[in-house]
Amino acid sequence: MLPVNRANALLTLLTQIKALHHTQHLHAKVILHGLEEEVVLGSSLTNSYIQSNRLDFATASFDRIPPRKRNRYSWNTILSGHSKSKNHCESLRLYNRMRRDCDGGVVDSFNLVFAIKACVGLGLLENGGSDSRIGDEEWVG
């Protein structure tokens, strides 16, 4: 296990870097120290890849976080990335996966906004209207 001060240093670096090669270098260090499955580092890596406009790497990083360790922050990070990229189908798919995998336990107002934006982007909500089924299991599940 990496000492706490080194893990904190990695987190600080991950929040400040924007260049893809720096993120990849730090990701290699995380793997080297066996910390790839740590939710905070995994989420920070996911965010760094999103900041580098590499949603493919961000998704791969998110997928390496064990499902049982994913939390609101990790889900909101990946949902935000897909939302910003206007990847509406994937945003909605991930939202549905989150609800299914987490029994709705991590659903909050932030990730619900990403689901609504995806619905609007896909034309599922027209003319500023809303669909009262958006929270229903059958509709989003």
Automatic annotation (TrEMBL):
Domain of life: Eukaryota
Extent of the PPR repeats: 71-101
Keywords assigned by UniProt, alphabetized: Repeat
Keyword Repeat set for record: yes
InterPro entries: PPR_At4g14850-like_plant, PPR_rpt, TPR-like_helical_dom_sf
Transmembrane segments: none
Protein name: Pentatricopeptide repeat-containing protein
